[in-house]
TrEMBL record:
Modifications made to the protein after synthesis: Transiently phosphorylated on a His residue during the reaction cycle. Phosphorylation strongly increases the affinity for substrates and increases the rate of nicotinate D-ribonucleotide production. Dephosphorylation regenerates the low-affinity form of the enzyme, leading to product release.
Primary role: Catalyzes the first step in the biosynthesis of NAD from nicotinic acid, the ATP-dependent synthesis of beta-nicotinate D-ribonucleotide from nicotinate and 5-phospho-D-ribose 1-phosphate.
Catalytic activity entry: 5-phospho-alpha-D-ribose 1-diphosphate + nicotinate + ATP + H2O = nicotinate beta-D-ribonucleotide + ADP + phosphate + diphosphate
EC number(s) recorded for this UniProt protein: 6.3.4.21
Family the UniProt entry places it in: Belongs to the NAPRTase family.
Pfam families in the record: NAPRTase, NAPRTase_N
Gene3D superfamilies to which the protein is assigned, alphabetical: Aldolase class I (3.20.20.70), nicotinate phosphoribosyltransferase (3.20.140.10)
Keyword hit for Metal-binding: no
Species in which this protein is naturally found: Bifidobacterium bifidum
Domain Nicotinate phosphoribosyltransferase N-terminal: from-to ranges: 8-132
Name of the molecule in the record: Nicotinate phosphoribosyltransferase
Length: 440
């Protein structure tokens, strides 16, 4: 992998702000920053949080090498005094927020970062770039999984995005409900199920389709999936069963009218005795195409472009805003923007979800001072949505690695079932539950 420092995955102004604040003494003021979105993508009913585990991975190595420090010095990004401060860079603050796989809505306090201004401000771009993209992919994946019903969806989008985004997308897709990925690096890093057999070029490099199928079956076994639309689908299916026998694992269709083609292929496979052979379809699928295929005899889907681009919403428009800071007297003070259409809610937050008859009814965001929030008592039955990820620099490893991804995968399905059923509608609409903000 590329050797890089996540502490440089940032915008220059974060370092220039650090430099200025170290000179005027505000860098060491205690602060609380909050990540939230002002709105969901147009027409979306909910969003799915993803990317927390990746942030924690990056945070564990959030430091600067001698080469990095020379770069900042040579470019005169910061002063010599700030270079000395950065030599001991280590995040010593605390982070809490929504868990991966949780649903979020406008103004949900998805992540809260507490520490000194100096260390917190350096995290802004990294945190936002991870959460905005990963959550966009997980949200799209969740909609696709709902549209697919019980049929598994697989990530095949690596070739449609940046090479590193492909790895992040694979992880986020699994959190969003997908079952596996074609991306081997993602499978290696995160312990994901890897899938894939052959492309059209494999058929074309052989003298004929039969030779290609025979080679693949010889290498991968009868349970492999053969791609049958390079030439003539009907002839290919016949050849596939002749080569592999009725024990053929699967066939893949990547073009044409997928519903009509799947029906014909299913009938042909059954007539040839391959009644257990599965049908996978690919070809620029999105949640709407998946919904249209519900009545077709399809067993699984491979999704690419629309998954890794958030199905038209490649970002969640999340922002990272200062909501509380220590003033010159050493007292913590809520702060907020008052900009037109961009006003923020002051103070640190609590977040709960209330339910009626087992279904989510309202998202409750409670804002106030640390003392006020410590004394706040939610109504009976409200679910606390915040978990602690980092405690004074100590990262909770339970939210990293494969087990955390598997937990988030299961949690998303549970959290979605707790929302009103209209959450799964593909029709454009408002967020499925309202967010109520209370300032203490």
């Amino acid at each position: 992998m590329v050797d890089y420092s996540p502490a440089l995955m940032t915008d220059m102004y974060e370092y220039t702000m650090l430099d200025a604040s170290l000179k005027d003494g505000t860098a060491n003021r205690k602060c609380v920053f909050e990540v939230y979105t002002r709105h969901l993508p147009e027409g979306r009913r909910y969003g799915v949080v993803a990317g927390i585990g990746r942030i924690l991975d990056e945070l564990s190595r959030f430091l600067l090498s001698d080469e990095d420090l020379r770069f900042l010095s040579d470019r005169k990004v910061v002063s010599k005094e700030t270079i000395s401060w950065l030599e001991n860079l280590h995040f010593s603050g605390s982070i809490k927020g929504y868990r991966e796989g949780e649903m979020f809505f406008p103004n949900s306090p998805i992540l809260q970062v507490e520490g000194t201004f100096g260390e917190c401000t350096l995290l802004e771009t990294l945190v936002l770039s991870v959460l905005n993209y990963d959550s966009a992919v997980a949200s799209a994946a969740s909609r696709m999984v709902s549209a697919a019903k019980d049929r598994p969806c697989m990530d095949m989008g690596g070739r449609r995005t940046n090479e590193w985004a492909a790895v992040a997308a694979a992880r986020a897709a699994v959190i969003g409900g997908f079952q596996g990925t074609a991306n081997l690096l993602a499978a290696q890093l995160y312990g994901l199920k890897a899938i894939g057999t052959a492309a059209h070029c494999f058929t074309l490099v052989h003298d004929d389709e039969r030779s290609a199928f025979a080679s693949q079956v010889e290498a991968l076994g009868r349970n492999t999936t053969l791609l049958v639309d390079t030439y003539n689908v009907e002839e290919a299916v016949k050849t596939a069963v002749e080569v592999a026998g009725p024990q053929l694992g699967g066939v893949r269709i990547d073009s044409g009218d997928l519903a009509a083609m799947a029906q014909r292929v299913r009938n042909q496979l059954d007539a040839l005795g391959a009644t257990n052979t599965k049908i996978t379809v690919t070809n620029d699928l999105d949640e709407y195409a998946l919904a249209a295929l519900q009545s077709a005899p399809v067993d699984s889907y491979g999704v690419g472009t629309m998954l890794v681009t958030g199905s038209g919403a490649p970002t969640c428009a999340m922002v990272y805003k200062l909501t509380e800071r220590e003033n010159s007297a050493g007292v913590m003070q809520p702060v907020a923007k008052k900009s037109k259409d961009k006003a923020s809610v002051p103070g640190r937050k609590l977040a709960y979800r209330s339910y009626e008859y087992g279904l989510a009814e309202t998202e409750h965001v409670i804002s106030g001072s640390e003392t006020q929030l410590a004394e706040y008592r939610p109504a009976e039955g409200w679910k606390d949505l915040l978990v602690d990820y980092v405690d004074h620099g100590d990262i909770d490893s339970r939210y990293q690695g494969h087990a955390a991804i598997a937990d988030a995968h299961e949690y998303r399905a549970k959290a979605l079932r707790e929302l009103p059923i209209t959450a799964q509608s593909l029709m454009k609409g408002e967020p499925v539950i309202p967010t109520e903000i209370t300032v203490l």
